Amino acid sequence: MSTQTGRCYCGAFHVGTKASPQTVAYCHCSDCRRLSGAPVAAFAAFDPAHVVITPRWPDAKSHAKGVKRWFCPECGTQLGATYDYLPDQVYMPVGLFDQADRWQPQLHSHADSALPWLHIDDGLPRNAASSRASLTMASCDS
Ligand SMILES: [Zn+2]
Ligand SMILES: [Zn+2]
């Protein structure tokens, strides 16, 4: 299996995965916008058993029921998130990874929350709300 590599902004935490993402998606929801500070976030879903964070997973934070998130305690970079209703998957920001150039998103989640001035004409499927019905995936807290 190939190895995917990445790190947080400051480099205190490195991530590695033994497999390519199960799903890659944009999320336009307001939670992801606040978390990332960017107009749209993009996440890759992995089997948690395939993900290694070095030196360790930091303590999880939970600000929404059923959602756990991990951040680098030094620089604040979001390392990943899990959702109780999406078991056996961890969602990690695509931008962490050295291989981000290869992971084109497959769909847009929460497209109805997209900023009106953001135009991405990629022809990908757009789901008004969470996309978990179509790809067992959702990148937001609601
Ligand atoms: Zn860091
Ligand atoms: Zn979201």
List the main descriptive attributes of the protein structure presented here.
142 residues; mainly beta; Metal Binding Protein, Guanine Nucleotide Exchange Factor, Chain A; 4-stranded mixed sheet; 2 helices; 10 strands; globular; binds zinc ion
Q: So what's the oligomer here?
A: single chain
Poorly predicted residue ranges: none
Rg, rounded, reads 14 Å
Quick one: how many beta strands?
10
User: Compounds present?
Assistant: zinc ion
Just name the CATH architecture.
Answer: Beta Complex
Order of helices and strands: EEEHEEEEEEEH
Physical arrangement of strands within the biggest beta sheet: 9-4-3-10
**Domain module count:** 1
N-to-C span: 34 Å
Strand content: 25-35%
Q: How would you summarize the topology of this molecule?
A:
Layout: E1 4-7, E2 14-17, E3 23-27, H1 30-36, E4 41-46, E5 51-54, E6 61-64, E7 67-71, E8 78-83, E9 90-93, E10 107-109, H2 132-135
Parallel strand pairs: 3-10
Antiparallel strand pairs: 1-2, 2-5, 3-4, 4-9, 6-7, 7-8
The chain binds zinc ion (2 copies).
One zinc ion is lined by residues 27, 29, 31-32, 110, 139-140.
Describe the structure.
The chain is mainly beta. It has helices at 30-36, 132-135, and strands at 4-7, 14-17, 23-27, 41-46, 51-54, 61-64, 67-71, 78-83, 90-93, 107-109. The relative contact order is 0.25. The strands form three sheets. It has a four-stranded mixed β-sheet with strand order 9-4-3-10. It has a three-stranded antiparallel β-sheet with strand order 1-2-5, with no helix packed on it. Strands 6-7-8 form a three-stranded antiparallel β-sheet, with no helix packed on it. The chain contains two helices and ten strands. Residues 8-10, 12-13, 72, 74-75, 77 line the site of one zinc ion (ZN).
